[in-house]
Amino acid sequence: MQTLPFYWINVFTNLQNRGNPLPVIILEQSLSADSMQKITTMFNQSETIFIENAQSECPKLHIYTPVQELPFAGHPIIGALEILTLIRKSPVSQVQCKAGIVHTDYDADTNIYWLKAPATPTKRASDLTIELTAKMLGIASEQVLNLPTWMNVGNEQLLVQIKDPTTIDEIALNLPLFEQYAALNPDRCIIYLWAQQQNGIYARFLSLNKGVLREDSGTGSAAANLGGWLLLQGKTNLEYRIQQGTLMQRESILYLKLQDQEIWIGGENHLLGKGELNWQD
Known about the structure:
The protein is 21% helix and 43% strand. The strands form two sheets. Strands 6, 7, 8, 9, 10, 11, 12, 13, 14, 15, 16, 17 and 18 form a 13-stranded mixed sheet that branches. It has 281 residues and is of the alpha+beta class.
């Protein structure tokens, strides 16, 4: 029987009732993948993160959804950086996840933790047309500004640019079309909808996991994929403020920075509390 310290933290906010909730579990010895998956399913959040070798030069992170382990995700890493700083008494400069080494930074003036996307952006075309995308989303075709694109800077996702931010809140997913055209694998369909607004970007992230439709209130990996899409469009040296989770009443604020061909994602955290979990591996 292991006693596992855990922390509960809201990511991409400095408020107690906003942002994306995250359980952060400290592993003093290794834990099986089966146990990490079962614990994540029990917590039933969008992701749960496990920190191994917290005092090392490059702590190892295991990021799980209730369905599977992820190679990379922004919200769990940003939250884990806060806990690592608390444990170590100083910020770390890098962590490791399945996608590779992730370089990190901390701005003490703004209390924002930053991570650099771990992979060079790649893209692939989807099978969606503008008209089919509009039908899948239940919106007018003129609201779809570009052909949907699969982007990957560590965690592949389908991105769609929408003309008006208000339209993003009005979508009505056609689930059969969503399952057919937005499937990353047989168990997981995903889409990131984004639009430019006066003070930055407004976004929503929806997923269908084994038939259960979920919405994420703050998705750092999707923001990083958006950065990859912008880089491939020739954009560089810019900064965006991304608003997500508003319709869920869990508003998250993410920061996207393109700097010398590098993609950086940032956000604040709000620590809610801590506890212990007794677990037999």
